[in-house]
Write a structure and sequence with these properties.
The chain has six helices and ten strands. It is of the alpha+beta class. Strand 4 and strand 5 form a beta hairpin. The longest helix has about 35 residues, at about 235-270. The chain is globular and about 75 Å long. It starts with about 25 loop residues before the first helix and ends with a helix.
């Protein structure tokens, strides 16, 4: 399944599928992606540019397969910011979800059909409210494009940047969400949704003399699919919104457990906050209390 440019939007792969799986080009792609997974996620843009310099023939495949931090641009016609990525790109131009125009101007750029454009407008309005409620700021954008028959695909983007260093605090961070949906219509009144979600999180602290400089960055990817009724008005908006909301809650809980919980466990293993003698006294006291309770 292909997007409006060169990207694949299958619910289980964002790689273009025009190459045979066992071919040499696919092996090169797998090697490049494996290398990207092992490089520091906080430098993903520089890493991707370096890999593309090594294998320029894989430029389109890598750009459509590797999630990068979202960038914010301004739509002068609607006076609103929007997010750009590979899913609203056509050549060197990017389409605004608010005005449906390309920047730089592109007269033959691909845009959604009239009915799908109406759904795109409703989804942008809905996720703009969602972003405000959950993120209290940031920027969101939704893009839709037609697939074969009544099926379509959508991409929901959310970005929030917080910089407390300007307020005299040592922390700044960025959250990027990329949700790619493939919506199949097997029969009237029913839709099957395939969702692939990626969250990229970056947190930096710099407090000389206290904690020093700490950088935490990484990404998390999850997939999900379900079927739902579309008989009610605005059913796609409700179904997509509910699915994305549930996925983001799961991703945030997982990030909290992996990034912060594991980091804390490792730090405690490396160096305790109290002396080992004090910890031994606590353990001995716990043993004594347990033995007295059992007796």
């Amino acid at each position: 399944v292909r997007g409006p440019d060169t990207r694949s939007v299958s619910g289980y792969s964002r790689l273009p599928v025009q190459k045979e799986e066992g071919s040499e080009i696919m092996q090169d792609i797998e090697c490049a992606l494996d290398l990207m997974r092992r490089l520091p996620p906080s430098q993903i843009e520089d890493n991707l540019a370096g890999v593309i310099d090594i294998v320029p023939d894989l430029t389109e495949e890598l750009l459509s397969s590797v999630d990068q931090p979202l960038k914010i641009v301004h739509d002068g016609d609607s006076k609103r910011d929007y997010l750009i990525c590979d899913y609203n790109r056509d050549g060197d131009s990017f389409r605004s979800p608010w005005s449906n125009k390309f920047d730089p101007p592109l007269h033959d750029g691909q845009t959604p059909s009239g009915e799908l454009r109406e759904l795109e407008i409703k989804l942008n309005e809905a996720f703009d409210i969602y972003r405000d409620l959950y993120y209290e700021g940031g920027v969101s954008s939704v893009y839709c494009w037609n697939l074969d028959g009544p099926s379509f695909a959508a991409c929901i983007l959310i970005k929030k940047t917080q910089d407390h260093s300007k307020q005299g605090q040592p922390m700044k961070g960025t959250w990027d969400s990329v949700h790619v949906l493939e919506v199949e219509i097997p029969k009237k009144g029913t839709a099957h949704y395939k969702l692939t979600s990626t969250v990229m999180l970056t947190i930096d602290t710099n407090e000389p003399g206290v904690t020093g400089s700490v950088s935490l960055a990484g990404s998390l990817n999850r997939q999900e699919e379900k079927s739902a009724s579309t008989s009610e008005p605005n059913a796609h908006v409700v179904n997509i919104g509910t699915m994305v909301e549930g996925m983001e809650i799961k991703l945030r809980q997982t990030l909290e457990t992996i990034y912060f919980g594991k980091t804390k466990d490792i730090a405690n293993e490396l160096r305790q906050q109290v002396q080992s003698s004090v910890l031994k006294q606590r353990k001995d006291l716990t043993k004594q209390l347990n033995s007295q309770l059992k007796s």
